Amino acid sequence: MAEVIFNEMYKNHHAESRGLHTRHGDRIEANALRVLKREYGFDENRIAEQVTYSDINEADIVIAMTEAHKRELSGLYGMDNVRTLKELAGSKGDIIDPYGMDEFVYRRVFSEIRELLERIRLFREE
């Protein structure tokens, strides 16, 4: 969801979503797709992709949803361009992973991600 929200908000930048523990062939969870369709008309059911060294190396910044993911990415690839979304927004803590939860939880997480992205000045055109 974060990729779609980011790309809708910041048209002059581009985000791509990757997973740390993704199975090849996994698709966007149905509740996430419903929320994205309602909010943005998004209905592209993409296949999940596993994060790679080149993804991290080629990115200006890598945004993780949790501190644990940040530590794992930094440890695996030895890069210093990994931050959490809350860290970039001047906050602390993790964004819960709603996988397998009901649509209400997905809507709550969607709203939290959108609110945090709105607070990040790094991507705004001044």
UniProtKB/TrEMBL annotation:
<dbReference type="InterPro" id="IPR023485">
    <property type="entry name" value="Ptyr_pPase"/>
</dbReference>
<protein>
    <submittedName>
        <fullName>Protein-tyrosine phosphatase</fullName>
        <ecNumber>3.1.3.48</ecNumber>
    </submittedName>
</protein>
<dbReference type="InterPro" id="IPR050438">
    <property type="entry name" value="LMW_PTPase"/>
</dbReference>
<dbReference type="InterPro" id="IPR036196">
    <property type="entry name" value="Ptyr_pPase_sf"/>
</dbReference>
<dbReference type="Pfam" id="PF01451">
    <property type="entry name" value="LMWPc"/>
</dbReference>
<feature type="domain" description="Phosphotyrosine protein phosphatase I">
    <location>
        <begin position="1"/>
        <end position="119"/>
    </location>
</feature>
<dbReference type="GO" id="GO:0004725">
    <property type="term" value="F:protein tyrosine phosphatase activity"/>
</dbReference>
<keyword id="KW-0378">Hydrolase</keyword>
